[in-house]
Design brief:
With 276 residues, the protein is of the alpha/beta class. The chain is built from 10 helices and 10 strands. The strands form 2 sheets. A 5-stranded parallel beta sheet has the order 3-2-4-1-5, sandwiched between helices. A 5-stranded mixed beta sheet has the order 6-7-10-8-9, with helices on one face. It starts with 5 loop residues before the first strand and ends with a helix.
Amino acid sequence: MSNAGKLWVVATPLGNAADLSPRGREILTEADIILAEDTRRAGLLFKRLGLERHGRLVSFFEHNEDKRLPKVLGWLEEGLNVALVSDAGTPLLSDPGFTLVRTCREQGVAVSPVPGPSAPVAALCASGLPPLPYAFLGFTPRKKSQTEALFLAYRDTGATLVFFERKTRLAGTLGIAAEILGDREFCVARELTKEYEEFLRGRLGDLSGLDPDLRGEMTVIIGPAVGGERTDEAGIARLVAEEEASGGKPKEIARRVAGRAVGWTAKDVYATMRPA
């Protein structure tokens, strides 16, 4: 496909319009077709940026990506240049586009990134938590059992975990993380690059200070487990006895023990406390 057009994957601002790169502005101005997750929001963004475009704006989102794919490939075969944008940040990172990019690669159509704003990277680099290695998990699953399985799969990797979460699910998801991952440092990055940008630090072992009414776009970072040898079962039994003396419900005690132990989650500790 030597005469084919090119697919440009263009990062757009998270909130601050000044973060659009000059190259990104040039590509979006000159593209023949602009694929947007939400054409209305894209139109407002272009207006806010004062960006003159001559290309056609086409909707391209999760539920129409497969349907749109043949048409987009046809445009590329005709030699048209196509730009892919998401609502904000870098496309494909929990946004549509993977199937399109993969198909273009398989069919020999050129794909080129136009780097720029990325919420996972922006949040991670300003959080104060270990940046390497890290794993980006996208949005957490809706079902609790699936979220538990996700955290369990990454529990022992030694990686800092980065993911997106909706405001109504934040407290519940951090509670699940505390049970599966143990008492780790976390940071909630809210409204990145916007006027009310905020980084909220804490520990999973104590979520009492977390505001349940937080609003805005949120990226969550959970640090890796503290290093050291795993606490043996005798050590866990001793810690349980100490915490039981301080009082509290079994699950609360298990959470406190997990915060003092190495390599144990609250769920693991609770299992040792239950009669066989």
